[in-house]
Specification:
By secondary structure, the chain is of the alpha/beta class. The protein contains nine helices and 22 strands. It folds into two domains: about 300 residues, Aminopeptidase, CATH 3.40.630; about 140 residues, Aminopeptidase i, Domain 2. A hairpin with a 6-residue loop joins β21 and β22.
Length: about 450
């Protein structure tokens, strides 16, 4: 009898056919990443996938019965999808919750100015970034803007082959003597993170000649004026595609894997189970939310009561007499968010035997938070036991991890928000290297195992 627990790497357990499946899934995932660089695009692509698979807008359904497939889009930036189970909602639901907002640079409401013949756009960073990582890399511009008539205009520049790109020019090392004296958290002044947008002077303008050129081009292309930036949401994100990493093509590098890797698996798990004609005993819910990276605030975040509204709609349309709080109390959830993988060169921040190793399976984390478990949602032993059994029964390879050494930092997910409502929740997602950087790295085997884990959980 083997008494010791040891991590196993996924690759050595797979046969040739399974490795092919990993590659197929990885490529589909990378395609999703490349076409979903903002939360709005994630929602648009999710709706397309759901519609193709027989899901429909819950508001168009008068009543719901077992097997019905519905979704609710919350203000273009978050989405809840459900398949109705045979049992009444009082018996609880199986929820997988992930987020689709990723660290990035947002435009300020009045962003445009010029200095020394270069026009730039002022940004405000979104989420926890190491600011220097966003300097001197190609950036793409995505978003929506409304003109004075209230018409919505979509912007997407920088990700197709002949597109132009944008960048923030970092200071050359030759003149950076003073800049480099400051500590890494301070040497990039966020007020100087301005994106270069033009350099040609308008011949007719008397002043702000480059700014005039930029405004004229924006007006030609999109019919917008400077004031319209105030009714816009424009995001700058890395202008490069996700790709395999390593001579063995074992890893995936790409922007926004936190947390689109879990969101894609979440979506694919529910959709593929429907495709496989699985009949669900309990209602299953994929919840994919926004604003996790800035503390889950606002009406598209997990703390908004729109998810309560969705549960109310499910109750009413299925004719259940259950109280919403009872539904929550009997529900179970995986908080599907990325975890930290032990870094090969910065392993001193991790307690190795309580950390996730790249390629060793989906990370199951009893708690996150910081210091003395502050702000953590600490899953109870009973629920850990239940989830571990589900994974064991379904041959899902998982590993037990924590965020890092106590006192080295910390972080959280949406887990606590559902736990507050009474749901049994545990953190469970893909481990990544270089989290929140423009090029996060995951193991394609973990990525695939995440999908298998979520399928197993939905079926349980
Ligand atoms: Mn996350
Ligand atoms: Mn994050």
């Amino acid at each position: 009898m083997e008494l010791k627990y040891e991590k196993k790497d996924i690759y050595s357990t797979l046969n040739k056919k399974e490795i092919e499946q990993v590659d197929v899934y990885s490529k589909e995932y990378m395609k999703f990443l490349n076409s979903s660089k903002t939360e709005r695009l994630c929602v648009e692509n999710a709706v397309e996938i759901l519609n193709e698979n027989g899901f429909s807008d819950i508001s168009k359904k008068r009543s719901l019965k077992a097997g019905d497939k519905v979704y609710l889009v919350n203000k273009q930036k978050s989405i809840f999808a459900a398949v109705i189970g045979k049992k009444d909602l009082i018996y609880g639901t199986n929820i997988i919750g992930s987020h689709i907002d990723s660290p990035r640079l947002d435009l300020k409401p009045m962003p445009l100015y010029e200095n020394h013949d270069v026009a730039v756009l002022k940004t405000q960073y979104y989420g926890g970034i190491k600011k220097y990582q966003w300097m001197s890399i190609p950036l793409a511009m995505y978003g929506v803007v409304y003109n004075e008539k209230g018409e919505k205009i979509k912007i997407a520049i920088g990700d197709t082959n002949d597109d132009t790109t944008f960048t923030i020019a970092d200071l050359l090392p030759h003149l950076a003597k003073d800049q480099l004296k400051a500590n890494a958290n301070e040497f990039i002044d966020p007020e100087k993170m301005s994106v270069i947008i033009g350099n040609i002077k308008d011949k007719e303008a008397k002043d702000s000649k480059v700014k005039t050129t930029v405004l004229k081009l924006l007006n030609e292309k999109y019919g917008i004026k400077e004031i319209d930036f105030a009714r816009a949401e424009i995001e700058f994100v890395p202008a490069f595609d996700a790709k395999f990493v390593g001579i063995d093509r074992s890893m995936i590098g790409g922007y926004g894997q936190d947390d689109r890797v879990c969101s894609y698996a979440n979506l694919r798990a529910i959709v593929d189970l429907v495709k496989e004609n699985h009949t669900f005993d309990k209602t299953v819910i994929s919840l994919i939310v926004d604003k996790e990276e800035i503390g889950s605030t606002g009406n598209t975040s997990m703390t908004s009561q729109v998810f309560d509204m969705f549960i109310n709609m499910l109750l009413q349309k299925t004719g259940s007499k259950a109280d919403r709080l009872n539904v929550y109390y009997n529900s179970k959830m995986l908080s599907a968010d990325v975890a930290t993988a032990v870094d090969p060169v910065y392993d001193d921040v991790s307690d190795i035997q309580n950390s996730n190793i790249l390629g060793s399976g989906i990370a199951l984390e009893k708690y996150s938070g910081s210091g003395g478990k502050y702000s953590s949602s600490d899953a109870n032993a009973e629920f850990m036991s239940e989830v571990m059994k589900i994974f064991n029964d379904n041959k899902v390879m998982y590993q037990i991890g924590t965020l890092g050494k106590i006192g080295k930092g910390g972080g959280g997910t949406i887990a606590y928000i559902l736990a507050d409502k009474g749901v049994d929740v545990v953190d469970c997602g893909t481990a990544v290297l270089a989290m929140h950087s423009p090029y996060e790295v995951s193991s394609k085997f973990d990525v695939y195992m995440t999908y298998l884990a979520y399928k197993a959980f939905f079926k349980s």
